[in-house]
Amino acid sequence: MQETVETFRKDLFSGQHVIVSGATSGIGLDIARGFAALGAEVTATGSSADKIAGMGSESAIRFTRLDVRDRAAVKAFCADQERCDVLINGAGIARGGAEWDEDIFLDTMDVNLNAQFRLAIGLKDRLAERGGSIINIASMLSYMADPGVPAYTASKTGVLGLTRALAHKWGREGIRVNAVAPGYHKTDMTKPIWSVPFGEEAVSRRTALGRWGTTIDLVGPCLFLASPAAAYVTGMCLEVDGGFVTGNPLEA
């Protein structure tokens, strides 16, 4: 993490308020830490009270419980925010083959896609006041198909459309909206693949950089997209997959 944040000015986000959903573990947590390391006040949300209770002390990050499926809770959370400079829509789930059940499919879609819209709408006025930025977390499955996770695939594909629509809807109000698309990063969600030799090797062979990503690999791209260096970048998705999507599956 230190090498990544040292790439940027240490007070880059000083005085700014950054909200990161799905930030009590994995990618979201490291993104929250990245912004905090550059001076931001960070509000990190998660749905698990137990995880929040176990987070310990991180002075620049305030952890709060929020079920992004709960419309009333999201509305109340957004109304309580006096300022928002950056919104990272990081909450996401995958439920494997169970997603072929309609109820689970719809619930997964609600977390991964609808909630991004819900938070963006709720914080839109605060973002407009600050000339703020939204970064949605998409996926390599925004570009590929995986029949093992139909809802995850559909929701992450939808994130691209939502990102573009919001960018054009709110661009004249000074709000930039972009996305990042992680590939295979070592997280709890992907552990069933990277924890076995065949799975880890198969991904590494197809990836141009020859390795799995880490959660920290997502931090720099998010910091860039929220910074003045990306002032003329909106409606775009930055793929952070080590070249996996462009690899040749026949050679994997």
Automatic annotation (TrEMBL):
<protein>
    <submittedName>
        <fullName>2-deoxy-D-gluconate 3-dehydrogenase</fullName>
    </submittedName>
</protein>
<dbReference type="InterPro" id="IPR002347">
    <property type="entry name" value="SDR_fam"/>
</dbReference>
<dbReference type="GO" id="GO:0016616">
    <property type="term" value="F:oxidoreductase activity, acting on the CH-OH group of donors, NAD or NADP as acceptor"/>
</dbReference>
<dbReference type="Pfam" id="PF13561">
    <property type="entry name" value="adh_short_C2"/>
</dbReference>
<dbReference type="InterPro" id="IPR036291">
    <property type="entry name" value="NAD(P)-bd_dom_sf"/>
</dbReference>
<comment type="similarity">
    <text>Belongs to the short-chain dehydrogenases/reductases (SDR) family.</text>
</comment>
<dbReference type="InterPro" id="IPR020904">
    <property type="entry name" value="Sc_DH/Rdtase_CS"/>
</dbReference>
